[in-house]
Amino acid sequence: MNVLSLMRFIKWRKPSLRSLHAPKINDSDLFHIDSRYSKCFSCAKDELKKLSDQISNNDVRRIVQNRYDALSSLSTDMDYSLKCLTDIQDLIDLSITDDDEVAEMARIDLDEHGSELIANVEIGISNLLRLDDVEDDTCDTILEICQGVGGAESGMFAKDIHDMYKTFAQRQNWDWSVIQYNPSGDKGIKSACVIVSGVGAYSCLKYEGGVHRVQRIPKHVKPPKIHTSTISVSAIQKPQNIDVKFNDKDFEFDQFGASKPGGQNVQMARSACRAIHIPSGTVKVCQDHRTFQSNKAQSLRDLKEIIVKSKFDEFMSSVRDSKNVQIGSKERHEKIRSYNWLDSRVTDHRLGIVFHGLDRFIIETTGFYECILKLKNRDYSLKIDAYLKRHGAT
Q1: CA-CA-CA-CA torsion sign (159, 162, 168, 172)
Q2: E strands within 208-281?
Q3: Nearest CA to 192 among 231, 229, 143?
Q4: Tell me, what DSSP letter sits at residue 349?
Q5: Distance (Å, whole) CA 22 – CA 37
Q6: Model-level pTM?
Q7: 185 contact partners, CB below 8 Å, separation of at least 6
Q8: 198 and which of 83, 98, 174, 288 could share a cystine (Cβ 3.0–4.6 Å)?
Q9: What pLDDT was estimated at residue 356?
């Protein structure tokens, strides 16, 4: 309900049971409206007007056309967001007026529609900020977890964090594809590399890149003593061109007699297969099965896995600098998050916030999700500041 409708409605509306008991609120209890929102929309409108003037010049039209089209597509949404922003501000002003009846009605409307109005404004801001965001959240995420300082305890902690991410991915209905999994001892891992696919996966997991520290008493250490160890996590976007497309003409198959034991049938029936990928020169031989067709199918599967892994290793090598920025030297002082088993708490050092309940964070992943939301909100605020700074509106 807009403000004009509210004012007309007040004249004849009888007070309901709810309105009679509507609580009094102070200025500090009102909806918070970020003053930067209106500045962002104003900057966008000004930029759109300038681009509109420039686009009439054929010499610069090609340069600014894409930006102009992108902003134009958001023009209607921005107008709606600005209207919501105005409506909620007017409701807030009415809720603190000296007219008790008008103020009470405005508070009720704030209670019923305030959250929806703010959500519409924030959607408009998010769409605007996304124009300058180079990250593509539709891309898959390559998540790598590696043992750091601390020996066997570090390996067991790596397994705990790996399982936390896997549980969270399952609850978000993301696909979890294992690329590499190197176990360490009975209950730990040296390293694991997976591809996480799904909408929103990268926007959540990108905050996990860095050193994670754990403090707990290992079961195998006597006398009991608190042990500090680390693991490293990297989360990078998987580019679309890492996917390898295979054509039948790229493969060549040679048939020959197997050299493995198995009697005359195996050795004389020419059941072994040598598969060759012509573009890369990669070769894979298979002679494990009794028939040529079975060995051919197996060698083709193995050969494709080798080629895909080779492409993947090339990509990981090319992004080594990005990974190093995230994980540093894996030392304890470079931590982004600490997990304290004795006190059952998790501290995110970027936020300066403590989350109580380790099971709630690692096993149920509820606390982990809350941490991600807070990191997103911090990132969102920083992006607004950066947007305003780029447009000279601080």
Answers
A1: negative
A2: 210-216, 227-238, 251-256, 272-277
A3: 143
A4: T
A5: 29
A6: 0.63
A7: 152, 155, 156
A8: 174
A9: 96
